[in-house]
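Bumping with the actual sequence this time:
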Amino acid sequence: MSFSEFTWYYVIVFLFVLTVLVYVHEWGHYWVARRNDVRVEVFSIGFGPEIYGWTNKAGTRWKISAIPLGGYVKMLGQSDFPEDEEEGQPLTPEEEAVSFSKKTLAQRAAIVAAGPIANFLLAIVLFAGLIMTVGSARPYAGVGNLMQDSAAMEAGFLPGDRIVSVDGQPVTWFSDLVRIVSVQPGVVLKFQVRRGEKELVLSASPKSHTQTNKDGKSETIGLLGVRYDPEQVEYERQNPLKATWMGVQQTYRLAGNIFSFLGQIISGNGTSKDLGGPLRIAQISGQMAQGGLDNLIFFMAMLSVNLGLINLFPIPVLDGGHLMFYLAEAIRGRPLGARAQEYGFRFGMILVLILMVFATWNDLVQLQAFEFIKELVT
């Protein structure tokens, strides 16, 4: 898609997705802060001037701000720059009791870590919801391709066939087929096969194959010699408990893939051109929404994992940077000096700004924005 095809629809969907993810992230900070008796002064979706807001009984100003590209929670006694606290008005004893800066190290760390954790929990909930309602993809007992000189090729199997039973035993999933065939090497089996609109029966004798099992012992198994095609899948709904566990696994795998991708870029084995910014996210959000609500929810879950991980990076101004300072405080027995923290946060702001500019530049190049501008002025 080029920049000229970028529509307001993409922007609206992107802002919806971003607002949900930011709200959940900031809610994590807010919820744990309130559980630790910290006064939250502001809960803002967006930055800049307030468009609409209200104040609740706890004294928190909830507001929607003019620039909908993020959000923040402002707690009493919280500042990225220590000198701001020193220059401010002294806190009264009542204010110190509800001040973020006066809480224990463990309490402050928990409040900061709660934002990313909330994003991971959201991803698990979204993945689990999809698995319960849409289902999880599983390869069915189909023939994707045939191995040369295999039992399946000799029996007359063809790509696209679907095996529905073996010796009268119904099979649904490819794993069922493997389980039945592997324990019967050399045995002639009758396979009921669906080929298009036709049903036929093929006889095949799985060839013996010797391999080493997980215990390090040799075993002989039967091989039919078929592989499934990645597109030969159906969706199986799971119960809430299993869906939740699968949501945890999906979140864990996705986090591992992100770390692997970043590692490849750092080592030089990957390309930084794949790093996307707001425009690329807006593009994909719109495309996912056009593909259906389930696609958009899946994308939101993926973005939530990304947001959680990014915020845990040990870069000052991000949650991970704060946690890094708290770790140093735990080791030293006292906080880092005000000057060291100030330099750290300023460096972090510059680094984040550079990364944002770089990612946005990648977006503009990928969307051919410069070619679009050139066409407008020529």
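The tokens above came from a reply further down the thread. The CA atoms of residues 144 and 229 lie 4 Å apart.
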